[in-house]
Design goal:
Layout lengths: L2 H19 L20 E4 L4 E3 L8 E5 L5 H8 L2 H11 L3 E6 L11 H10 L6 E4 L4 H6 L3 E2 L1 E5 L5 E5 L18 H10 L14 E2 L5
Parallel strand pairs: 3-4, 4-5
Antiparallel strand pairs: 1-2, 1-5, 3-7, 6-9, 7-8
């Protein structure tokens, strides 16, 4: 490979990373802020059962916005990184809710059984997979990307919002080099410390909200 070709590939990779990071509007537009009480909601899971956030008060809750049609989501699921992070969280006693706010008329939309099957095939370990087709819950949290992560402490206070990790790319190879923000926040909570980095810049595909 020539030096010119290698340089061009590095430039293209950098441009792709910047484009990914640019998908999220400024954090000032978020509907919630760290330190506030997390908005309550009730959604149906992929099996049709109603799940209410308030029922988990007293436990740490992780919210993950997902969409299997997004390459950034596929990066973390196909590699096993999302499933491993979910498993670690649940082993620590946390509840993990995966939320799909994709509109029914969007090409990325998967009916609940297909969505649940896709996640299961990739060793997803969420407590529940929730459907938010009208986008009301996603918009109440200001979820802008897939994935977009939120962590709520045992008192119902939002303590983290942002990216799953520190490298905004769709490349699987970047996972092992990245700092996992969700794992770090959960470790802080388990140790009784304030979350060291409570807000980070989320990256990924835009949430496919109902128009």
């Amino acid at each position: 490979m020539s030096a010119i070709t290698a340089s061009r590939r590095r430039i293209l990779a950098s441009a792709a990373t910047l484009a990914a990071a640019a998908l999220l509007p400024p954090l000032a537009r978020a509907a919630v802020s760290v330190g506030q009480g997390a908005p309550d909601f009730t959604l149906q899971d992929a099996g049709g059962k109603s799940v209410r956030l308030a029922d988990f008060k007293g436990k740490v809750v992780v919210l993950e916005w997902t969409n299997p049609g997004c390459p950034f989501v596929r990066k973390h699921y196909d590699s096993g990184n999302m499933g491993a992070t979910q498993k670690l969280a649940r082993e620590q006693g946390a509840v993990w809710l995966s939320i799909n706010s994709t509109a029914k008329d969007h090409p990325d939309y998967l009916p609940p059984p297909q969505l649940a099957a896709w996640l299961k095939e990739r060793h997803g370990a969420a407590t529940a997979v929730l459907m938010d087709e009208d986008g009301a819950v996603g918009q109440s949290y200001g979820a802008r990307t897939t994935p977009h992560m939120f962590i709520i402490d045992a008192n119902g206070t939002l303590v983290y919002m942002g990216a799953i990790d520190s490298i905004p790319s769709a490349r699987v190879a970047d996972i092992e080099k990245a700092a996992n923000h969700v794992k770090a926040a959960l470790a802080d909570l388990a140790a009784g410390r304030p979350v060291a980095a409570p807000v980070t810049q989320a990256y990924g595909c835009s949430v496919k909200y109902k128009s």
